[in-house]
Amino acid sequence: MAGYGSIGRRHLRNLRALGQDDIVLYRTGKSTLPEDELAGLTVEYDLGAALAHQPDAVIIANPTANHLDVALPAAEAGCHILMEKPISHSLAGVAALDEALRQGGGKLLVGFQFRFHPGLQKLAELIRQQTAGRPLSARVEWGEYLPAWHPWEDYRQSYSARADLGGGVVVTLSHPLDYLRWLLGEVNGLWAFTGQISDLEIEVEDIGEIGLRFESGAVASLHLDYYRRPPVHRLEITCTEGLLRWDNADGAARWVKAEDGAEEVYLPPADFERNHLFLAEMQHFMDVMQGKAEPVCGLEGGQRALELALAVHQSAAEGRRITW
Q1: Staple 234 to which of 9, 61, 247, 277, CB 3.0 to 4.6 Å?
Q2: Has this prediction a pTM greater than 0.85?
Q3: What positions does the domain Gfo/Idh/MocA-like oxidoreductase N-terminal occupy (predicted)?
């Protein structure tokens, strides 16, 4: 496993919860987290030394800008890879990673954990079955106050706030760029505004306002920010036969029928909590490693989400719509 920040620690805990204890941690030692959970764990500070243990898989949970530095050697060594999103901060090296995976034989899963959310999975099922008719338009709102994410560290030094580590709200909160494609199909055009408009002391954008057009003819708007208090993350899809809704606050999916306004509510399991997304993702990754499943989002899907995020920045910088 590469990286011991917040998500690295979560993956370590989940691996242990799933009965995996043969773990090597590759790290730089810059994490601000307590190290008591590392007792008894093999820790390496050199990537070559870590790969010399011949791991079956590598979990990449270091800063975005450093993902490919680990992924390429791991793929060349034939490892399966669970890579945190986004796959990188640029497309440089992505084609080489694709070739390395082909040559090495490993599979890659991108860590878009919202694909494992029961509420969003229910929306995907309703859309697939055309329960609410044909999707016409969608709206996503996602805002969270960046300083509250990791209270134990200075938010200004976090990768999310630093351009050199691949931060910024567009790539850091890029999950909707993936799950909107998953739900509504391929994107063929977008426009965007981005900027730094809050009082946060950061060097990257804290707002993104994005418009998407899909090959199906549907359109979507997406708002992302680093300053919303209290936080919000919700999705609404307008269809020909009503509204489909999902709210991360309660995890429920809803279908509001056009005919009479009646609402059907699909609640997540009673014991559902956020870490279940990551546990389900890790279990899926283990199934991929064992040949029991194909990645729900492989390198191609991760690359497309990154391309959209980069196109957002291009659109905002050039003041024009980007099309494919």
Answers
A1: 247
A2: yes
A3: 1-112
